[in-house]
Amino acid sequence: MSELTSLTIAEAREKLRAKEITAIELTEAYISAIDAANDRLNAYVKTTPDLARVMARKSDERIAAGKAGELEGIPLGIKDLFATVGVHTQACSHILDGFQPRYESTVTQNLWDDGAVMLGKLNMDEFAMGSSNETSYYGPVINPWRAGGSNQQLVPGGSSGGSAAAVAAHLCAGATATDTGGSIRQPAAFTGTVGIKPTYGRCSRWGTVAFASSLDQAGPIARDVRDAAILLKSMASVDAKDTTSVDLPVPEYEAVLGQSLKGMKIGIPNEYRVDGMPEEIETLWRQGIAWLKDAGAEIVDISLPHTKYALPAYYIVAPAEASSNLARYDGVRYGLRVDGKDIVDMYEKTRAAGFGQEVKRRIMIGTYVLSAGYYDAYYIRAQKVRTLIKRDFELAFDAGVDAILTPATPSSAFGVADENLAADPVKMYLNDIFTVTVNMAGLPGIAVPAGLDHRGLPLGLQLIGKAFDEETLFKTAYVIEQAAGKFTPAKWW
Ligand code: GLN
Q1: Dihedral pair phi/psi, residue 305, rounded to 5°
Q2: What would the pLDDT profile of 258-310 be if each residue is shown by its tens digit?
Q3: Counting C-beta atoms within 10 Å of the first and last residue's C-beta, which end of the chain has fewer, N or C?
Q4: Is the CB–ligand 1 distance for residue 161 below 6 Å?
């Protein structure tokens, strides 16, 4: 790992402004790092070195002219779900083969407007459906972390597995990601990186390929809490093109780092203890509680009684919305087309060939729960459960809790092609047991690395906050990071 790629965004920003390094040098260092590593890690599905060089040179010109933006010259990786003009945007699905949008997503446009440089598009689970990055049409991403003394290939989590692996392996300074049920926080936890899913409405969803529109939210994966704060500040905005984006000022998230936790109340939900959860996750949670207490926070036990219904309700709401959103991929407008004897035959052949197994499963579940006769029994019921989950959180916050601390995932990273998981999709779905509640309630959640398990693999803690109170999450996560330290994998790739 060259020195330049080991700089955090905050460090690189300083050196660029002080003219100790140039944006083109930094960009070239990342391009070389990606070239050397991507065959092994498969984090990028498309690299854009020529575009990166053009952007970096422009950044150097702006720096020289004293016109540097907040992210001037910072090389980033972009999840394949974000529309980028003229560049591979396929949600890692075969059905979007060859699709290059003519428009830019609002989130990526915000980053470029602040001077960031695009290195390429990152691997992900197909249409963001998955928890291991193994549903990608482009093959699995390999986690840069390995268990001590083992060569076994591990998954980086999903669906933003390429984003998390690229950040952990220093193949970009930071990455965009999205989270519908845990896809920012779970991969962050599996790779020792920081990921924040902001409040629903904090970032515009415009130009982000839709999975489940009432749950989808963009956010960053970064090497540390400060970098995540810097990235979210740039990504977030109100947007006339997404009516669910919210017109609230975007705070200076960085400004809260280092503030005291005195007077804060942290809630510990009893329901986030699940059967079969390894003892070391429980230990990590207790350690997190101790750190926050030491920092002056008051710890209170809380109850979120509908937690156990969140996962089943999510697996009704998310596939229902997905089945509707994915109806547009029919071989007519974009991507793959498989010819048939008439138009209906063409639709069927295209969708049969273009979607992977997991996506097909979701479309079928979604179509079923929305069909006449089942709509009330499943979909309407799941929506009611969703309201109850939201209310659980509201009651806790109304009682004076400022943030909630939970484990981020029920385990550390597991193996690629794990037999145990392949046989039963529900086991894979259980990865999101601690994260889906947050999407169902529309709240912000951050995953921050807090330690290593007995095999030397990273484990994360999650903090859940009030709507639009990302500042409290950054401030509290920073305290955990200061206590736990940062975690970088030993290089083998
Ligand atoms: N793993 C969850 C799923 O497969 C969440 C995915 C996501 O957040 N995009 O639906």
Answers
A1: -65, -20
A2: 999 999 999 999 999 888 889 999 999 999 999 999 999 999 999 999 999 99
A3: N
A4: no
Confidence band for 124, pLDDT divided at 50, 70 and 90 = very high
Question: Percentage of residues in the chain with pLDDT exceeding 90?
Answer: 95
349's CB contacts (< 8 A; 6+ apart) are 331, 338, 339, 340
**What's the gap in Å between 492 CA and the centre of ligand 1?**
29
User: Which CATH code of 3.40.50.620, 3.30.470.30, 3.90.1300.10, 2.120.10.30 fits the domain covering 1-493?
Assistant: 3.90.1300.10
| Atom 5 of ligand 1, nearest CA residue | 181
183: annotated active-site residue: yes
- Is 204 tagged catalytic? no
Q: Which atom of ligand 1 is nearest to the CA of 179?
A: 8
Ligand 1 contacts CB of residue 221 (under 6 A): no
Is residue 66 pLDDT above 90, yes or no?
yes
